[in-house]
Amino acid sequence: MDLNAQNDTSASPECVHSGAGNWSLETPNTTCGNFTSHVPQRVRQRDEDHTLRILLYSLIFFLSVVGNLLIIVVLTVNKRMRTVTNTFLLSLAVSDLMMAVFCMPFNLIPSVLKDFIFGATMCKIVSYLMGISVSISTFSLVAIAIERYSAICNPLKSRVWQTRSHAYRVIAATWVVAFVIMIPYPIISHLESFQRSDNTTAHRCRHKWPLPVAAQTWYILLLLALFAIPGVVMIVAYGLISRELYRGIQFEMGHKKDTDDVKNGLTSAASCGSDDGDGCYVNVGQRPHSVEMTTMPSSGRPIKAERLRSNTSEAKLEAKKRVIRMLVVIVVLFFLCWMPLYCANTWRAFDDTSATQALSGAPIAFIQLLCYTSACVNPMIYCFMNTRFRKALLATFSCCAAPCHRRHHRGMRENEEDVMAMGASMSKFSYTTVSTMGTC
Question: Rounded to whole angstroms, how far apart are CA atoms 36 and 25?
Fold first, then answer.
């Protein structure tokens, strides 16, 4: 993310076209004429824009702060929620909270006041923290995608190395990398003064690059490191997961047709997971090394077992379909939230004049809001859509009013699709029954 955009909301008055490479959220006018008759209308329009912008920013800020704080509290308080995937989700929640706190107020307030009132030191600090939060958020999304792929498509191999200690090392590495690669921001961020249309002096936090080629190189690196490469990794990982889940759906559909053969013990299947299944099913007929589980005939028990397996199969089949849809939503929202800004920044790096004329004003304001929206949709997608997390959330806050220790632990063992919606963390204790060949 180019954090230059957030600093330009305090930029020039409406009759000044800034050529320094910064965005202005005012409608650009390259020439100043006599607009006296249009001033009241323009003032009313500007006030309406500010009102709408304040409302949208306030809504997204509230959802982001509350949602990510809830995730941090729930995952910190509940020991049973401390899985490998949830460890990455905790890092994601912290980075998204940082994005909401250090991006949105320092974007909105200068935009409304037309003045960066926080001083030169905060100009550098805020720019640095903005870059760090965006980087960590993106790296966390990639880590979650890789962890899910390994857990679902390579369950046995992933159990060897997917532990919380490994997750802690990965998270520490992502934070260190984010702090290092964003060092240029406090160096190039400067507070400068400008004269407003009412002859008063205001300030803006600007990014000053020594050479145009340096800015172009930086924008290209950001485009690759924080958007293109992470986007490709997420598409590949979630695509392979969806393919494996789709195979499971096909197997379940075929399994229903072969019910009679299953009863006679002619065919069987191994399920990647029991109570915490992720929907990765393997057909024994196609993969001979899988653990074979044959239905054992006994008086009165086969019928009940078959009914139970039928109900479980239906639940897992629907769960797989929901997970596939959720994975598609994750990828679509990632590109929807971030692609406009990275494309706009790259465009500006190579053709500042046309980019500023085309995107200044409402377009860049909308693009920035899309980026901030990711901080409030991530909690909804990765946590609040998960039954286990919702139960843990209710248990956490209900325990404040009444004892609920037993109810909490009983609720955490229910609902078979829980890990599917969260991503199926495959640590040592996650899976009890797995296939010996579960690769994609």
Answer: 21
* Span 63-79, pLDDT tens digits: 999 999 999 999 998 88
Residue 435 to residue 281: CA distance in whole angstroms: 8
Strand-pairing partners, residue 189, are 207
- Residue 435 placed within a domain: no
Residue 157 lies in a domain: yes
In a domain, 308, yes or no: yes
Asked whether residue 439 is domain-assigned, the answer is no
pLDDT in tens, 205-246: 988 999 889 989 999 999 999 999 999 999 999 999 988 888
Kind of pairing between the strands at 189-195 and 280-283:
unpaired
Number of domains the chain is built from: 1
Whole-number Å distance between alpha carbons of 408 and 318: 26
Please count the other Cβ atoms lying within 10 Å of the Cβ belonging to residue 78. Answer: 20
In order, the DSSP letters of 23-41 are --SSPP-SS----GGGHHH
At 204, is the secondary structure helix, strand, or coil?
strand
For residue 110, give its domain range: 4-28+46-422
DSSP 399: T
What is the C-alpha separation between 419 and 10, in angstroms, rounded? Answer: 45
Query: Which CATH number belongs to the domain containing residue 82 in this structure?
Result: 1.20.1070.10
List, in order, residues 6 or more apart from 39 with CB less than 8 Å away: none
Q: Which of 366, 345, 374, 370 is nearest to 4 (CA)?
A: 345
The length of the chain, given as a count of residues:
440
Cβ–Cβ under 8 Å, residues 83 and 69: no
Most distant CA pair in the chain: distance in Å? 96
- Strands in 42-195 per DSSP E: 189-195
pTM, two decimals, is 0.72
CB 265 within 8 A of CB 294: yes
Q: Cβ of 14: how many Cβ atoms within 10 Å?
A: 17
Structure tokens at 397: 């806050």
The whole-number pLDDT of residue 294 equals: 41
Name the least confident of 126-130, 166-170, 399-403. Answer: 399-403
Between CA 127 and CA 138, with CA 107 as vertex, the angle to 5 degrees is: 55
Nearest to 222, CA basis, from 73, 371, 47, 436:
371
